[in-house]
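Stage V sporulation protein B
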Amino acid sequence: MSKQTLIQGTMILIIAGLITRVLGFVNKMVVARIMGQEGVGLYMMAVPTLLLALTLTRLGLPVAISKLIAEADSRGDKRNIRKILVVSLAITGVLSILITVAMMALAPLMSRYFFTDHRTFYPLIAIAPVIPIVAISSVLRGYFQGLQNMRPSAYSQVIEQVVRITLVALLTGWLLPYGVEYAAAGAMISVIIGELASLLYMFSMFKMKKTMKIRNGFFKQLKGGRGTLKELLGIALPTTGSQLIGSVSYFFEPIVVARSLAIAGITTTMATKQYGELAGYVIPLLFLPTFITYSLSVSLVPAISEANAQKKYNVIEHRLNQAIRLSMLSGGLAAIITFVYAEPIMDLMYHSPASAAYVKVMTPLFFFLYFQGPLQAVLQALNLAKAAMTNSLIGAAVKLAAIFALATRPEFGIMGAALGIVLGIVVVTILHFATVAKAISYTIVAGEFFRCFLCILFTGAGSAYLYRYIFPQFTQSTGTAVCIVSTIILYMFFLIFFRLILKEDIKHIPFIKRWVK
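Tokens:
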């Protein structure tokens, strides 16, 4: 079983994350152009229910499996690795069956009374069978990550997206004549087949690389696995707290939005279309850069944990400053591009230039999200996961309350829902930062962050100039590409000019470090 170093594994995940995000956008564009806003709205209304079901099924086990298998592997304890796999498969297997049956049984009730649009029944029923598939996949991913082999997990993500994109156009186009609800169900079926292809790949890798037999003595291992079960749940349950809060919040989000818009006097069909624009077009675009901060968060946990164990608080502060600076710089470029070029991007991707209004309103406050992941990673490394969960709970409550307060007012409507979503993000990020600052007496390096601000400000001004004077000289697609590339080049220039890219930031990157002396 080939292993990678921390940096190599992180880079593999970043590359896979970039590929899957790009492919995911292609998938969303295909779905949007075939099904339209109404079909995307039905599809997106069912997605939060799926995510909640998956969170309950996984129960935070992938992290626990990874940790325990890594410890067992370091001791060469293959017997314990086998026991961890057996107990994990048993837990996720039972949970996935129960939750799948519950989801299919409750689908008629949910579609009629919770979502206000009875047509959500079809995508809800169509997506239910994916739960057992994802449950088994999560166990295998935890196994490979515990052995410090990130390739199967990364490759499986790419395979899943490729298969989904290949089938989504075929299935949605084939079912669209029967109604948009059937087309939305077809999009969900493509998700199932993509996840199945991903699982088959990981299972084949497991069969090739494993040095033990799982089936032999399965129930015997299960009977003697009480200690392993206790260890797994001891790690998994606290880990899943914040995830569950996010999933529950996301589950209630379309329900609160639909009810709020109904109170505001907006028809069910129009509300579904508007939520489709917001949740299916705008939010995925704004979430695009988070794969970078996610990879940074993964790398940050062991680095902060090591420094905290050695009580090197100055090292913690230094690494936190690095993480926040890199988050600010990666998020800054994304914010500039999405804000300045919102209209042509939304028109080219979804034929929905009107959605640019949501992008422009949400982008400035959505910028806070790019700091949230690294800050939460620091809290986990400092054994403050409960505080992170509390912060997430407060943010979720603020988000849902703000959506209801604003979206019920006719002058705001769906824009009130957009403001409520970003307000929740801002609250969680500020609370995370306050908790970290209290825990380690954190001090911001003002000069460094002022240079970051100037870099973003100057690049934003230059990008606005490009959009106003250079963009009109080309066709929409060419002009957008030329201006975005020029913006990236301008941003890189200011990064170097303000000395925001340092040698220590790039010397650890594979293939580049050999050129940095």
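The first helix runs from residue 6 to 58.
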